[in-house]
Every structure is written in structure tokens, then in C-alpha cells.
Design a protein that fits this description.
The complex is a heterodimer of chains A (about 110) and B (about 250). Chain A has about 110 residues and is mainly α. Chain A is about 65% helix and about 0% strand. Chain A is elongated and about 65 Å long. Chain B contains 6 helices and 2 strands, in the order E-E-H-H-H-H-H-H. Chain B has helices at about 30-50, 60-105, 115-140, 155-200, 205-210, 210-245, and strands at about 20, 25. In chain B, a hairpin with a 2-residue loop joins strand 1 and strand 2 (about 25). The radius of gyration of chain B is 22 Å and the shape is globular. Classes of the chains: A mainly alpha (about 110), B mainly alpha (about 250). At the A-B interface, helix 2 and helix 3 of A face helix 2, helix 4 and helix 6 of B.
């Protein structure tokens, strides 16, 4: 009994064997470094603002409405940035689902 | 100076100036390491697969698992059709970025992926492939990409604007991700490595103290190897996700 594996290892091992038996490939999941995740969130947010501003600026040059287009563009860029960040977070959560067997921790809502 | 952390990113011509029309095509250290990256990747794949053995040798196992790794990634993200159409493109991108990143880990070597021109070129290649192929394959249905289903009409116009900006922000974040990771990693590495000679110049206490930044440099070096692989993988994965939109527009 002393050399038994800890239960988490047994569970992940079982999950992998079940997936293999079902004929599913075990998806390759390299570890995400926290820094690259942070850069990803920041990049998505910043890129949307930049592109929104550029599109607004482009609209200004065609419509001769400077600076209204750029102001609106930056605002829309911020909205898009938030949408992008939420999407990245959603896909990250889907890829790294929490352990369903984890003990629940009581919080303020309980 | 050798302790200048920016020095490693300087582009220096190594041939006589070459001018093609208005284009400055001088062979630089960046060109050299891009050619080296392409050469290394193709040399490895060709020579590792040369035996074509049923029971693979060591090099063949590495080449085959690299192939399988990207193959299953493309299949997961873009389906069977995606594998048929895009696998060579994605695999080439992955191998090139991986080889360039790994070559850049050698001291005194140049890292092409730390230049945003190079990462942006690759991201724009993917972006225009999505647009051209999406329009050619789906016609006007491609624009469904910007019109999510199940949204009431009074906010739909707003959502469409958001989706269009989001679509155009893709190549930017795609390029910046790889570039920023490699650039930041190499900068931090060089800054910590630069502390070692600076401290060692300050006498005996400095020499003993310089063990600390040296240890940090070694630890960061290990992390950079992970980043070099991971960013090549992430770039290829995002390429698959974007190319999937060209095949199956609409959310």
C-alpha cells in the first residue's frame, strides 16, 4: 500500500486509458507558460484597439470627418478588445476544464 | 558594447548591397539565419526520413512524431478537409519558426522571429489565404463570418462592426504574439547575462555575487527553450483556427 500512486495520478491515468480505448487520440497539450498567456490577453486587447483606431482614421481620410471617425473607431476598438479577451478566456477555460471531482470550496455565496 | 541588450537585434549587411528595382535585397544576418532555418528544417526532415524503415530509427521517430503532432493538431482544429488543403502550409510554418527559434538560442546567433517584419509577413500570408480561399470556396456565404446567428436585428449592426474589427485585428495579434514573446525573452536573457560581467568587474564580492544573475540566466535559458517550441506551436495552432474559418464560415 505504501507505494500506491496518489489518487490524482490514478484518475488522469484512467482518463487517458479510457480515451485511448474509445479510439480517441490523446490531444497533445503542451504546458502554457503564464507569461505567454498574459501576452496573449494583452495582445488581443491591444490589437483590437489599434485596428479600430486605424479603421476610424481611414474612414476620416475618405469622409473628411477628422477626428470623429477615429474617436468612434477607438471606442469600437475597446469594445472589440473586450470581446476578444472574453473569447480567449472562454477557449482557455474549455481547454483547461476544472477537475469535476475537486472538493468544492465554500465562498461568500454559500 | 557586448552588454547592450539591444545589440543582438541589429541587422547588419553581410554582402555587397544588392538592389532589385526599388527593393533593397542586401543579404543581411537576418537573411542568413532565415536561410539557415529553412536549410536546417529541410535537411533534418529529408535526411531523417531517408531510410524509410518500417521500424524507424531514432531520427526517423523524431521526424515522424513531429509530422504526427502537427497532423493531429490540424485535424482537431480544421477537420479532414483542412488536413487535405492546409497541412503542408501549416507544417512548413511550424518547422520554419521552430528551426529559427532554436537557432536563435545559440549565443551570438540572430533570431529572425524577433523581427516583427518577419512574423507580420507570415501572419499576413495566413490572413490573405483565409480571405482568398474563403471567398473562392464559399462565395458570399463567407461574409456569414461577420454575422453571428441568433442575434436580434436591433443590435446586429453593432455586432457586425465589432466582428469586422475583430477579424482585422487577427493578423496583428497573430504576428505580435510570436514577435513579443521571442523579443522579450531574448531581452530579459541578455539583461541578466549582462549583470554578470558588470558585477564581476567590481572585485571579489562582485565575483561571488555574480553567481546570482548567472543562475537566473541559466534558469531563463531553460524557459526560453520552452517558449521557442511553444510559440511555434501556438502560431501553427492559430493558423489552423483561422484557416478553419475559411472552410466553415459562420459561428
Amino acid at each position: 500500500m505504501a507505494d500506491e500512486k496518489p489518487p490524482e495520478d490514478v484518475l488522469t491515468d484512467l482518463r487517458r486509458r479510457v480515451a485511448k480505448a474509445r479510439g480517441e487520440d490523446v490531444p497533445p497539450s503542451p504546458p502554457q507558460s503564464p507569461a505567454s498567456l498574459a501576452l496573449r490577453f494583452g495582445g488581443e486587447f491591444g490589437a483590437a484597439i489599434l485596428v479600430g483606431a486605424l479603421l476610424g482614421y481611414g474612414a476620416d481620410t475618405f469622409l473628411h470627418s477628422s477626428p470623429v471617425g477615429m474617436v468612434i473607431g477607438i471606442g469600437l476598438g475597446f469594445v472589440t478588445g473586450v470581446v476578444n479577451v472574453v473569447r480567449v478566456a472562454q477557449s482557455f477555460n474549455r481547454a483547461n476544464a476544472g477537475d469535476p471531482n475537486a472538493p468544492s470550496v465554500p465562498d461568500d455565496e454559500d | 558594447m557586448s552588454t547592450d541588450p539591444i545589440h543582438q537585434f541589429h541587422i547588419n549587411p553581410i554582402s555587397e548591397p544588392i538592389q532589385i528595382g526599388a527593393l533593397d535585397a542586401t543579404f543581411t544576418n537576418a537573411s542568413l539565419f532565415m536561410v539557415a532555418g529553412v536549410g536546417l528544417a529541410s535537411w533534418f526532415m529529408v535526411s531523417a526520413m531517408k531510410p524509410r524503415a518500417l521500424v524507424p530509427g531514432r531520427a526517423q521517430v523524431v521526424a515522424e512524431s513531429a509530422y504526427n503532432f502537427i497532423h493531429s493538431m490540424v485535424k482537431d482544429a480544421a477537420g479532414e478537409e483542412g488536413v487535405k488543403k492546409f497541412f503542408p502550409f501549416v507544417f512548413t510554418l511550424f518547422l520554419f519558426i521552430f528551426a529559427a527559434n532554436m537557432l536563435g538560442m545559440f549565443p551570438y546567433f540572430f533570431t529572425p522571429t524577433s523581427q516583427i517584419v518577419i512574423t507580420a509577413t507570415m501572419a499576413l500570408m495566413v490572413f490573405f489565404t483565409v480571405i482568398v480561399l474563403g471567398l473562392a470556396k464559399n462565395g458570399l456565404k463567407f461574409f456569414k463570418l461577420f454575422v453571428p446567428s441568433g442575434v436580434p436585428w436591433y443590435i446586429l449592426w453593432f455586432v457586425v462592426i465589432i466582428e469586422i474589427i475583430s477579424f482585422f485585428s487577427r493578423p496583428l495579434s497573430h504576428a505580435v504574439r510570436l514577435w513579443a514573446n521571442i523579443l522579450a525573452g531574448h531581452l530579459v536573457l541578455k539583461v541578466f547575462a549582462g549583470f554578470v560581467p558588470m558585477m564581476a568587474a567590481a572585485g571579489l564580492v562582485g565575483i561571488i555575487g555574480s553567481i546570482l544573475p548567472l543562475g537566473m540566466t541559466i534558469a531563463l535559458y531553460a524557459l526560453e527553450f520552452l517558449v521557442a517550441f511553444l510559440q511555434a506551436y501556438v502560431f501553427a495552432l492559430l493558423t489552423c483556427i483561422y484557416l478553419n474559418d475559411a472552410l466553415h464560415p459562420g459561428h
